[in-house]
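=== RUN LOG ===
request id: a7f3
mode: sequence -> structure
chains: 1
length: 153
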Amino acid sequence: MNPPRILLIDDNAGDVRLISAALEAALPGAMVASISDSTQAIPHLEADLAIEQSPNLVLLDLRMPKKSGFEVLAEIKRDPRMAYLPVVVLTSSEADQDVFRAYSLQANAVVTKPLGYVRLRSAVKTLCEFWLEVARLPPAMPVERKRHEDTAD
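=== RESULT ===
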């Protein structure tokens, strides 16, 4: 089995370091890519899809400059090539309207970033266990099948 691939989209360098360390503790050997510029999230995912290396899990912050996490989430879920990707919103926000909006844009889950590394590590471990071990995820759509479906319309 290939090591899990996780894409972390977060502009806060401190959060990226902590979340990356928590991911390493939960999934030694996992391939973690991080993007701090939210405008690069979709091009990065498109490049991954082109080489059939889409992430098994996307962790997405909401509050980012240039393009919000809401905008990134909407683009992912609107694109049939990416819509199947599990996207967990990992945010500092506790606002009910942010939770509601994220779910209305088809987030797979919304988790408030816990304060303190020990609690964050525990939350990340739980997320990884559920999304990568318990939940059954669809396989990435092979390129040939995508081409056939695109021409079938």
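=== NOTES ===
The radius of gyration is 15 Å.
The longest strand covers residues 5-9.
=== END ===
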